[in-house]
């Protein structure tokens, strides 16, 4: 979700980013640093396929942006392997005033790299700046915020305009905290490139940038959330490679210690038998799916959407295109990765071409022909999109594939310029909040233009609930409507494979493509095996 939403702002930011990018240092080769990443127990080297686009953590666009800035700027919360929120900068959090206020209490031992303490004032500044300038995913998740105030250096109170039980988890997980005394100097926080002289407060600080080659980060010796208060590895290096295949070769040769990118299923399968490499498997918090444009005829007829759902061979996609590294969500947008909400009564549409033909006949449709857009650079979707087309032929449906360049694909998605949208959400971590974004009338990422008053009512009820237990019933009912009306057709939940050298252990996995084992708490405690 973060990837899609931020891409919409990429074009506007590109010129500013290019103008403010740091210059390449004159020293250093950026090449291989030796065996096992070249640093022994004191350095871990990570492969990536992209440079940092923006060092401002509030507007970063690429995965590498997120990986690097996550090590520099704290979030209030992280999550455990099951997706539950756990403390990071915040130690505890709660709601008051029947859900119309919220409070977080903070650690008192984090410092910015210039020596100033990280306090409630930094949290208040960050969220108020996002609210004022209305940018990024966070802005879409804090619509209930009235104001934020620092009760003390270690306590923040949020006053809300309405009860919103999603607010704390949204802010805690999605919003990085930036230094007020640095970012307030910029006329616009959104446009601040933060391109040099970084003042940060994570387990590592950025010390050198060699664009197209590497990013060098050094340990912060006093970092409270790390085991023993100090990260175990002295240096973290991100090395830039042209593609995943080159990363795999570097990992096999001992030039790097892990690959940051999630491996395509076919690549993961080839590494299973390599004793020098381990695959850590991470469950996705998102899902791969097809969305149908409910405002385009004949897709505005639920029978046509159901016919399309019956025309997909889900098992073949999971077993062949995904090499078995995917599992069924039972046709539900409440996936097995969300144990607090999952509903076992929801069932996946079976692959039934005859049923699809009958529904089309009932809807008065003959020789149905529709188009489907997808990101041609996505290796998974590029494999299963033709399978969707071919299985639909058995139901007498013609699907014209449109593999698009990434920016064109995003633009068409945001403008609802498609019949069928094939894609995936990277992180859908909070069902009441996510449903509001994706399925509520006018939602920020409601690509299918769903407009269902009953669904809106249930989502509102789920968002007002102050606990998963209270939100569960309305959100499960909403999920059943989404399935029955085919507002979203979930194909699978991917099992992500992260490859790393067997010489490293003690990783802390988190269930998302962006966090995986490449998250601040994981890198703060990873160590040499034995």
From TrEMBL:
Residues 86-442 form the Solute-binding protein family domain. One of its GO terms (cellular component) is ATP-binding cassette (ABC) transporter complex. Keywords: Signal. It comes from Spongiactinospora rosea. One of its GO terms (molecular function) is peptide transmembrane transporter activity. Residues 1-21 form the signal peptide. It comes from the Bacteria. InterPro entries: Peptide/Ni-bd (IPR030678), SBP_5 (IPR039424), SBP_5_dom (IPR000914). Gene3D superfamilies: Dipeptide-binding Protein, Domain 1 (3.90.76.10), Dipeptide-binding Protein, Domain 3 (3.10.105.10), Periplasmic binding protein-like II (3.40.190.10). GO terms for biological process: peptide transport. This is ABC transporter substrate-binding protein.
């Amino acid at each position: 979700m973060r990837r899609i939403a931020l891409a919409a702002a990429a074009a506007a930011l590109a010129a500013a980013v290019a103008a403010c990018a740091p210059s390449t240092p004159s020293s250093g080769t950026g090449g291989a640093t030796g065996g096992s990443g070249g640093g022994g127990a004191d350095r871990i080297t990570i492969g990536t396929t992209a440079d940092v686009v923006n060092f401002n953590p509030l507007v970063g666009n690429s995965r590498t942006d997120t990986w690097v800035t996550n090590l520099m700027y704290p979030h209030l919360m992280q999550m455990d392997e099951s997706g539950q929120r756990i403390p990071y900068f915040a130690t505890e959090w709660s709601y008051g005033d029947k859900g119309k206020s919220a409070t977080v209490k903070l650690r008192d031992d984090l410092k910015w790299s210039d020596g100033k303490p990280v306090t409630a004032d930094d949290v208040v500044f960050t969220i108020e700046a996002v609210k004022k300038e209305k940018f990024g995913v966070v802005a879409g998740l804090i619509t209930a915020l009235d104001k934020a105030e620092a009760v003390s250096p270690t306590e923040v109170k949020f006053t809300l305009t309405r009860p919103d039980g999603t607010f704390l988890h949204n802010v805690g997980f999605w919003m990085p905290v930036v230094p007020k005394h640095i970012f307030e100097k910029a006329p616009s926080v959104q446009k601040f490139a933060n391109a040099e002289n970084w003042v940060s407060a994570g387990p590592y600080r950025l010390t050198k940038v060699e664009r197209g080659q590497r990013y060098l980060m050094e340990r912060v010796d006093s970092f409270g959330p790390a085991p023993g208060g100090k990260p175990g590895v002295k240096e973290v290096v991100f090395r830039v490679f042209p593609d995943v295949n080159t990363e795999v070769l570097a990992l096999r040769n001992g030039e790097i210690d892990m690959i940051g990118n999630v491996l395509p299923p076919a690549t993961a399968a080839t590494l299973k038998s390599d004793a020098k490499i381990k695959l850590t498997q991470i469950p996705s918090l998102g899902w791969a799916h097809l969305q149908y444009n409910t405002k385009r005829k004949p897709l505005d007829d639920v029978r046509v959407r159901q016919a399309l759902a019956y025309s997909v061979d889900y098992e073949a996609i999971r077993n062949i295109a995904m090499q078995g590294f995917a599992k069924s969500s039972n046709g539900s947008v409440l996936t097995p990765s969300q144990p607090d909400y999952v509903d076992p009564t929801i069932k996946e549409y079976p692959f039934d071409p005859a049923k699809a033909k009958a529904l089309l006949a009932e809807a008065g449709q003959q020789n149905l022909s529709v188009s489907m857009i997808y990101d041609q650079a996505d290796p998974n979707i590029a494999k299963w999109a033709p399978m969707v087309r071919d299985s639909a032929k058995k139901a007498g449906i013609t699907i014209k594939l449109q593999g698009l360049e990434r920016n064109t694909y995003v633009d068409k998605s945001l403008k609802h310029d498609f019949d069928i949208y094939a894609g995936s959400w990277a992180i859908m971590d909070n069902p009441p909040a996510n449903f509001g974004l994706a399925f509520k009338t006018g939602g920020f990422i409601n690509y299918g233009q769903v407009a269902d008053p009953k669904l809106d009512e249930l989502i509102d009820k789920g968002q007002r609930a102050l606990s998963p237990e209270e939100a569960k019933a309305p959100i499960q009912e909403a999920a059943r409507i989404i399935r029955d009306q085919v507002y979203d057709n979930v194909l699978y939940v991917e099992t992500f494979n992260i490859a790393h050298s067997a010489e490293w252990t003690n990783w802390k996995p988190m269930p998302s493509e962006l966090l995986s084992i490449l998250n601040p708490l994981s890198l703060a405690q990873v160590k040499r095996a034995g």
